[in-house]
Design a protein that fits this description.
Strand order of the largest sheet: 1-2-3-4-5-6-7-8
Radius of gyration: 17 Å
CATH topology: TIM Barrel
Number of strands: 8
Oligomer: single chain
Helix content: 40-55%
CATH architecture: Alpha-Beta Barrel
Length: about 250
Amino acid sequence: MAARLSVNLNKVALLRNSRGRGVPDLLAAADRTLRAGAHGITLHPRLDQRHVRFTDVPDMARFLARTWPGVELNVECEDHPDLMELVLAVAPAQVTLVPVTPGEVTSDHGWDLPRQGARLARSVRLLRDAGLRVSAFADPRADVMGRFADAGVHRVELYTGPYAWAEGAADVANELRALRDAAAAAVSAGLGVNAGHDLDAANVVALRDLPGLVELSIGHALAVRAWDVGYTVAIRELLDGMGVSPAPTPRS
């Protein structure tokens, strides 16, 4: 099965918030994104609501259910009680649990297992009991994939930052090998594989044969590229790099 593209709209929300009004409109951005051929939408609310606000999540879920039935909403968040309450109320197709270090600029590390294993397992159980698919943000380490399976997640989202930032053929090859080994270990443990962080139309090409790859979550690099060519072209470039077809659009 070809991997799917879930577009993270946090940067659209960040731009909106910088002006204190409703422009650009997040729902219109989601509609444009899906009409360009993306397969899903990702939102990552944080406690400080610096980009996606808590209210954006139910608004987006209702919009997708009404206008794009069948399109998946992936909500990334830490396991803080307020955020867990939010995702339980909204019931998106997927919840991706992401560990947070206070003051971090962006997510830059996966769950520390086994140290955080019991905590992760408690949160996963709460979400699974509500019938939600659960993914967990993971560093590309083959040796911990079995521990994610023990925690009860359905998928891992492999952190691709080190691969995206690698310079020189040797470093790129080493990071790509780590991703492939981790993905293979995840598949052996019975997990699906998502991936994301600073992926673009160029570096995503080498991930086409990543074992078990189901979904790529891409936002920042897409927003940067869209400044030059527009969202539609930027999304089509990503799909091209992934080697997958645009999702069909509904009849008007």
